[in-house]
Amino acid sequence: MDERLNSTERGFYVKLGDDFFGMYDTSGGPKLFFNRDKYRLTDSKWDVELVIGRKNNLFIFYWQGEMKISFRFCKNQDSVIQLYRLLQEYVSSKRTLR
Predict the structure, then answer these.
(1) Pairing mode, strands 19-24 and 37-40
(2) Each residue's pLDDT tens digit, 15-25
(3) Would you say residue 95 has pLDDT above 70?
């Protein structure tokens, strides 16, 4: 899998094979995307999991309780973990603002 964390002024993305996965900022707040599917993170309709395995890791994104994004990735693909951490930081910052 060709994997890199690419940065733009307004977001980050990872290329996983033929797929693109990332986050970007909009005037309405951040969005997560996987290829052409986009999810507004300001809505409280999402959740995310990262499962750490012996050889591979598993990333899962839920929207309204339904799994929308799920993929396995190699242990050495730190960019997916970085995006996961960005999602967790966003959740934490929303909680402290309330």
Answers:
(1) unpaired
(2) 988 999 999 98
(3) no
Instruction: Please report, as a single letter, which amino acid is at residue 30.
Output: P
**Dist CA 78 CA 84 (whole Å):** 10
Query: What contacts 98, CB < 8 A, 6 or more positions away?
Result: none
Distance CA 90, CA 80 (A): 15
Give the whole-angstrom CA distance, residue 44 versus residue 79: 24
Residue 80 DSSP one-character state: H
Asked if 32 and 92 touch (Cβ cutoff 8 Å), the reply is: no
Classify strands 46-52 and 31-34 as parallel, antiparallel or unpaired: unpaired
pLDDT reading at 2 higher than 70: no
> Which of the pair, 94 or 22, is modelled with greater confidence?
22
